[in-house]
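testing teh design pipeline on a random one, pls ignore if ur not involved
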């Protein structure tokens, strides 16, 4: 992307450090609102999500789905044979998707009055970023420097022990993998590799896979993984790993040991905030994260932070929304603060998990154990899910005589249902209100409708 020259006497309305989901969304919206904008990016516009995160992983997951469809085709009366995964072909497809989106994003940013500065920036004053020896000044500064793959103390990322960045570039399907970490990234890779034919074992220190989700979702995913032949050990901590030319030898604190060709370390993402001048400028931080108020303002006047460096869900669409919010706040539009619980969450494994709002346990904590009602609609009664051959459920959590405060879903493709679920949560809909709305038949969306009908006391394709 063409680098727009920025002179040292430029003063921008909005000066943004980092061109990932949070930073570029802030730039696009600020420019749309007539503000002058500079966007500083040291690597590729689009950041983690586009180049090393959401998009390439979901391309792999789609290739995995195609492989499963080929393998399971007979079940649908279609004669096809699954031969092999051609990783060069998979990577070509994945990289092609990323390249097209990258080109589109570059075009979008170029088409707006945004000064794009390629280079590594550093906060050298409350309103100043130094990049390529030039000082840029902003009436407002937005910090959006994103995150990196963490590891555990003493666990070196090298060779066959890798994080998601290297895993995305593998040229062969590994014969066997140990995945350290049963959170979203870990289970998504486990799902891909299993569909590609690898023997996979997930190791999670907490008592269940995807521990941030409602417990029922974890249980359903664990059941599905067992059926798919994905092994996992939960409630057990990693002790150490050694590697040689042929593979890794992983030991756990339980005394168990695991051998595999590679190990993926997926133990979370840390904020990318060191060495960027943040501490020196007096930014209030906690364990590397930049602290903000609900308007994403830091303790330094005029300095905002968005995306993965702000404590909370590390998701691209949260970054987009925060970027838009900050631009509008700077423009004086006084947008309403973002409800973190209203941000939809999807784990794109097979099966998928999609949720928004409070888990059942969190709702009972918040409102009282008896002040909450829960309903679980089994996808067994949903026509489209039967057609697809998937199992799972839609679980609703509501306050008694109040709105829906949590939606939790498991099953193939349920990620697509989260758009409706987040409307229901964010608009504080009552089950009785949703029950009057019509869902097309046969769709998986009907399962959401059925769950609301049941919770409103008038179940249709469900037992009372
Ligand atoms: C494997 C994986 C899968 C994921 N899947 C999903 C998903 O399916 N859905 C989802 O919502 N989220 C997903 N995420 C998370 C998502 O990628 C992040 O939440 C999102 O990218 C955060 O946006 P951000 O703008 O805060 O940071 P980033 O996207 O990390 O962008 C930060 C940018 O700042 C730049 N930068 C850093 N320091 C400097 C500097 N000093 N000077 C100039 N530029 C700098 C970086 O080069 C980078 O481009 C995934 C992440 C990973 C790793």
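output:
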């Amino acid at each position: 992307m063409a680098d727009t020259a920025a002179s040292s006497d430029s003063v921008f309305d909005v000066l943004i450090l980092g061109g990932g989901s949070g930073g570029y969304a802030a730039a696009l919206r600020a420019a749309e609102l007539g503000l002058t904008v500079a966007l500083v990016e040291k690597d590729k516009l689009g950041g983690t999500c586009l180049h090393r995160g959401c998009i390439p992983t979901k391309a792999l997951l789609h290739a995995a789905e195609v492989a499963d469809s080929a393998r399971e085709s007979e079940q649908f009366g279609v004669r096809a044979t699954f031969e092999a995964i051609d990783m060069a072909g998979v990577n070509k497809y994945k990289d092609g998707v990323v390249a097209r989106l990258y080109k589109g994003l570059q075009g979008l940013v170029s088409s707006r009055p945004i000064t794009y500065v390629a280079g590594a920036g550093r906060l050298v004053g409350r309103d100043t970023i130094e990049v390529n020896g030039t000082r840029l000044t902003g009436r407002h500064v937005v910090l959006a420097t994103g995150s990196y793959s963490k590891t555990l103390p003493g666990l070196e990322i090298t060779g066959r022990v890798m994080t998601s960045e290297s895993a995305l570039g593998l040229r062969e399907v590994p014969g066997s993998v140990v995945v350290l970490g049963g959170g979203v990234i870990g289970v998504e890779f486990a799902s891909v590799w299993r569909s590609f034919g690898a023997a996979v074992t997930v190791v999670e220190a907490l008592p269940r896979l995807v521990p941030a989700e409602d417990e029922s979702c974890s249980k359903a995913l664990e059941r599905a993984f067992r059926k798919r032949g994905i092994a996992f050990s939960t409630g057990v901590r990693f002790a150490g790993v050694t590697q040689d030319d042929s593979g890794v030898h992983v030991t756990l604190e339980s005394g168990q040991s695991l051998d595999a060709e590679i190990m993926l370390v997926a133990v979370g993402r840390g904020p990318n905030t060191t060495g960027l001048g943040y501490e020196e400028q007096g930014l209030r931080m906690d364990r590397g994260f930049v602290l903000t108020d609900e308007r994403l303002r830091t303790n330094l006047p005029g300095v905002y932070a968005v995306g993965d460096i702000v404590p909370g869900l590390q998701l691209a669409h949260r970054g987009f929304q925060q970027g838009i919010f900050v631009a509008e706040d700077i423009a004086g539009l006084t947008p309403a603060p973002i409800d973190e619980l209203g941000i939809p969450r999807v784990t794109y494994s097979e099966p998928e998990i999609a949720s928004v709002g409070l888990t059942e346990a969190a709702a009972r904590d918040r409102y009282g154990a008896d002040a909450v009602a829960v309903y679980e609609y089994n996808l067994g009664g949903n026509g489209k899910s039967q057609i697809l051959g998937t199992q799972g459920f839609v679980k609703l959590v509501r306050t008694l005589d109040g709105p829906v405060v949590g939606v939790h879903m498991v099953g193939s493709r349920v990620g697509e249902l989260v758009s409706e679920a987040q409307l229901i949560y964010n608009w504080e809909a009552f089950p009785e209100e949703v029950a009057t709305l019509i869902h097309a038949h046969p769709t998986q969306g009907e399962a959401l409708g059925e769950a609301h009908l049941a919770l409103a006391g008038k179940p249709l394709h469900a037992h009372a």
